[in-house]
Specification:
The protein has 361 residues and is α/β, with parallel strands linked by helices. It has eight helices and 17 strands. The strands form four sheets. A six-stranded antiparallel beta barrel has the order 12-15-14-13-16-17. Strands 3-2-1-4-7 form a five-stranded parallel beta sheet, with helices on both faces. It has a four-stranded mixed beta sheet with strand order 9-8-11-10, with no helix packed on it. Strand 5 and strand 6 (141-145) form a beta hairpin. It is globular, with a radius of gyration of 21 Å.
């Protein structure tokens, strides 16, 4: 392999420091910002905090100029629309709760960017993720948790392939956020004190349901009913795209007790309501598995697992119920296992693999 690396620069401090560290380590660094916004109007909306908006480009370019590295803005709009936005909308219409960051990482930030990087003569891509790429004694590659638990981003990276991992560098995985900012400040990087971007970049106003309504057109289901597990009608819902399993707020129901979404039924446009206990699960089913540490998920081991980015890990064993389909049996019940979300299995501080949640019980 050669010594050239393309760094995905979002205009934030993390990717800026990634580029700085790699240059300091002797790599030939090329900075790239991925243009994924769909219209100029959206780019302007993202100007105040989005990871790929106009301000991001300006900040990334200033960092690249400061580091004296080549810098390009590459158009990935069609890929982002196909793999991320269209998938996000379709999943909600099917009553599932997707994680668009996982799709973006897998198909756009890695698959598409790595292909483009190879075309311009680079052998590596790098990002500012808080995670570490490691090679195991078996020769397989996996991802190790970040040095800092509070910023660990391994959950959204579980779907990367072995080939992608072989060509990936994550230089800030050995640092915590304060250290990264100190490095940026000491190096004089223009983004040293820039605040972090939040939430989904293509929904800058955070109104996911409103975004889906605008984009889905004739496919959008209208209002339906809230029902209990026995099918008794409890009230009217605004449409299934407004809800996710485990949701309590914003239901608009007065039942005299706390109410939670326990299931979404796209075929009838119903949202099932239950008690807090009804959103707890002992077993979670999943498919679309990507194995990292082994060629196939090792069902003889005991793991910890996360079923949402912000949740803590819970111990579990795993069984393959049919080819490519698995069940995780948890040591204690987990909350709000939503179909469409990811389950990621950890063996200590490395990723064993993960997949897409299909159901629970």
């Amino acid at each position: 392999m050669n010594n050239t690396v393309v760094v995905g620069m979002s205009g934030g401090v993390d990717s800026s420091v990634a580029a700085y560290l790699l240059k300091k380590q002797g790599y030939d660094v090329i900075g790239v910002t991925m243009q994924v916004w769909q219209t100029e109007e959206q780019a302007i909306l993202e100007d105040n905090g989005g990871c790929c908006g106009l301000r991001a480009v300006d900040d990334a370019r200033r960092v690249a100029q400061y580091l004296k590295i080549p810098y390009y803005v590459m158009n990935f709009k069609d890929d982002f629309r196909h793999f991320v936005i269209d998938g996000f909308i379709s999943e909600y219409l099917e009553g599932r709760t997707p994680n668009p960051c996982i799709a973006c990482n897998r198909y756009v930030k890695w698959n598409c960017l790595l292909r483009r990087a190879r075309q311009i003569g680079a052998d590596y891509i790098a990002t500012g993720h808080y995670a570490r790429v490691v090679s195991l004694d078996s020769g397989r590659m996996t991802i190790k948790k970040s040095h800092t638990v509070t910023k660990d981003q391994t959950y959204v990276l579980y779907s990367l392939t072995q080939e992608e991992l072989k060509h990936t560098l994550m230089p800030i995985g050995d640092y915590d956020k304060d250290e990264v900012r100190k490095i940026a400040s000491a190096a004089g990087l223009p983004t040293a004190h820039k605040s972090d971007s939040q939430d989904i970049c293509f929904v800058p106003d955070h109104d996911y349901a409103g975004y889906i309504e605008r984009e889905a057109g004739d496919r959008l289901p209208g209002p339906g009913f809230f029902v209990d597990k026995d099918g008794n009608i409890l009230g009217r819902n605004k449409g299934i795209t407004h809800y996710t399993v485990g949701q309590r707020k914003g239901l608009g129901l007065s039942l005299g007790k706390p109410a939670f979404v326990t299931e979404i039924r796209p075929e009838t446009n119903e949202v099932v309501i239950g008690d807090a206990a009804d959103v707890m699960s002992n077993h979670v089913f999943f498919n679309n598995v990507n194995a990292m540490a082994h060629e196939k998920i090792d069902v003889t081991r005991h793991y910890t697992a996360k079923i949402r980015y912000s949740q803590t890990e819970t111990g579990c064993s795993v069984e393959e119920t049919s080819p490519g389909c698995y069940r995780a049996d948890f040591d204690k019940p987990v909350r709000a296992a939503a179909p469409g979300q990811a389950i990621v299995l950890y063996d200590g501080d490395i990723i064993e693999g993960g997949g897409t949640i299909t159901g629970r019980e």
